[in-house]
Amino acid sequence: MNYRHIFHAGSFTDVMKHAVVALILERLCAKETPFGVLDTHAGIGRYDLESQQASRTGEYLGGIARVMAAAERLPPGLGPYLNAVRALNTEPGMLRWYPGSPRLARQLMRPGDRLLLAELHPEDVETLRQEFARDRNTSVQHMDGYRAIKAHLPLKERRGMVLVDPPFEVTDEFDRMVAALATGHARWPTGIYALWYPIKERAAVWRFHDALERTGIRKILMAELTIHEEDTHQRLNGCGMIVVNPPWQLDRNLELVLPALHEAMGAQAGGARVEWLVPE
């Protein structure tokens, strides 16, 4: 409830997460039938990088600012993501606004596709409602993200994605994510599930991966991007995404995209990693 993403908007973690989300949405749009997206921890939709909060940390300077500066050298697969960022910044070369996952999703989805947004913070949910007030196919609800999984799955479209991106304010967040995935998958086994997680203490990530394998769920892809050596857990060394039921060739696309992002952001350590935790 105390977490405010504006301090971290456009950071390397956002870049990695949203690049993965954009690739998934691009594949969902390849079929004509409508799809739905449930974003369980939605935030406010878009972020002002010139705000006092974002300027205080300046995390976007090492993330999206560097990526946009290197855009011409990046793989074509990043095109939809980069275009979504450009669409919010009306002047060429300007970088003031950054799309959170709800705005990114809505820009990449089609008018007939449905977006469901859950946000628990009372101020942020009102901002989110204003952001999408004129969008008839976007629904904003003031509720806990994990409860939203129980309330809304399976999606009526029977095709789409669930994005789980919690703030990690509580010590048992990894356990809660595993339980939420198990609940969601039992209700909607064919849906795509994308779970973001921080990489601080590697042992905690290993336990998370082990717990995912023990669920018995198949087709679990893991992608990670680190920018620091993992020699301390006192900082954020990187982040990862778990994708259940990933769309066709997502693994190959990430093997091209993530190293390119690592290089574009000027990281001097760490790297990219893509592998199957559980195959088909």
UniProtKB/TrEMBL annotation:
Its EC number is 2.1.1.266. S-adenosyl-L-methionine binds at H18, H41, S101, E119, D144, G145, D165. PANTHER family: RIBOSOMAL RNA LARGE SUBUNIT METHYLTRANSFERASE J (PTHR37426). This is Ribosomal RNA large subunit methyltransferase J. It catalyses: adenosine(2030) in 23S rRNA + S-adenosyl-L-methionine = N(6)-methyladenosine(2030) in 23S rRNA + S-adenosyl-L-homocysteine + H(+). GO terms for cellular component: cytosol. Transmembrane segments: none annotated. Pfam families: RsmJ. Specifically methylates the adenine in position 2030 of 23S rRNA.
